[in-house]
């Protein structure tokens, strides 16, 4: 029994080490998710519909600012990440790695850069990462509403729980079909996580370094989804980390009240969006961007299927 537990422990450690230390797994997942979104949307999108839901309003806004909307951004990301995947596969260094060797050579004339070995992934890990997202997304979908309903009852037993536009089945079915729902689930899962958990978290953490109150907290360099940034590192008692997360989650929550396509403003929806955002921030920091995206995608898929 001890041997089985030891082998399982080693396998989990190896899996965690592989997906956290190598960008190959992350970028392949993100490219795959983006391709599903853009291909499905290409064949199912209806430009005559004002907006499918609150998230789609953000996509429509991008179309007004950038020609072809998210397609332009998606292609840029796919090409950029695809190049990193190619370089890792054939064993060539990217410009950041070459720059690091160059800087080291300037410091030490005797320094000889080590060649980069071609990376060969464990293909099972791709399934494990998607499975992680499936488990997290399913649990959040199944349990979070009951937890928030319990909290809402404690705050006000007579509180009426409003129905958001997303939850209005008759109205949603009038606007969308099955393939549109799937494409929107993948698109919302990817772009919300990239915007609110990726850029927003990194941006707020960078600003936090310049605020005096954060000088009381210990900021450490940590790896967040293959990005080395100086942020209040995740610790249960670290107020610096929780302040950054809370502020980012608040912005994420308020973004869902984009009139007239957003949620009905109320205690239940505020608690729900804030709790969901907090959970997703933790998954992003602990498990990386791709697992967070899969979690959001699976949650949205369950949402479209059952609500």
Give a structural overview.
With 307 residues, the protein is mostly helical. The protein has one domain (2-306). The protein contains 11 helices and 2 strands, in the order H-H-H-H-H-H-H-H-E-E-H-H-H. The protein has helices at 2-21, 23-44, 54-65, 70-90, 95-107, 123-155, 169-175, 178-208, 239-254, 267-287, 289-306, and strands spanning 219-224, 227-232. A two-stranded antiparallel ribbon has the order 1-2. A hairpin with a 2-residue loop joins strand 1 (219-224) and strand 2. Helix 2 (23-44) packs parallel to helix 11, helix 6 (123-155) runs antiparallel to helix 10 and helix 6 crosses helix 11 (289-306). The longest helix is centred in the middle third of the chain and has 33 residues, at 123-155. The chain is globular and about 75 Å long. It starts with a helix and ends with a helix. Residues 168-174 have low confidence and may be disordered.
Brief rundown of the structure:
The protein has 11 helices and 2 strands, in the order ααααααααββααα. Helices cover 70% and strands 4% of the residues.
Describe the secondary structure blueprint for this structure.
Layout: H1 2-21, H2 23-44, H3 54-65, H4 70-90, H5 95-107, H6 123-155, H7 169-175, H8 178-208, E1 219-224, E2 227-232, H9 239-254, H10 267-287, H11 289-306
